[in-house]
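Format notes (please read before filing issues)

Several people have asked whether sequences and structure tokens are stored in separate files. They are not. Every record keeps both together, in the order shown below: the sequence lines, then the token lines. Line labels are part of the format and must not be stripped during preprocessing.
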Amino acid sequence: MIARGIFRGGLAGGLLSAAFSVLGLIPICGFFAFPLRIAAWAFGGYLAGRIAISSGARTGGVAAGIGAGVIAGIIDGVVNIALSPLAFKVMGNQVAGLLLLPDPVVKYFLSLGIDIMQLNTIGGSIFFSVMFCSVAWLLAGIIGMLGGGVAQALAD
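Then the structure lines:
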């Protein structure tokens, strides 16, 4: 019962957030892309919660929301990894983003013997996309849990 909601909600949230990731390639729309992706993760969690509750699992909204959020985050992260070379080419270079990294992160890379400016390549763009993907599914799970909780609260 809950598995169907998790899969459908995660797929809906993942496809919607992937569309917003593609929208983020347009420089003027990039500012709005991440908040829209967060809303897509919440929508996936809400949809999963509604499907799980309507299937008879009265207390499964939050659990379905977490699962759907994780699936949506993984889909979104993989799409971002695939889009990162194109984003690097469209945006030019990522020097400005590298300069915004916190000082401890820069010192950590220097302690490993990596000059931070060496990451201003397509490979560096993919590296940072993989790092974001490793965090995105956790964040998406939390946001999806909130969406599933809203579905649970509205059903009670």
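For reference, the curators noted about this record: The mean pLDDT is 84. The longest helix spans residues 122-155.
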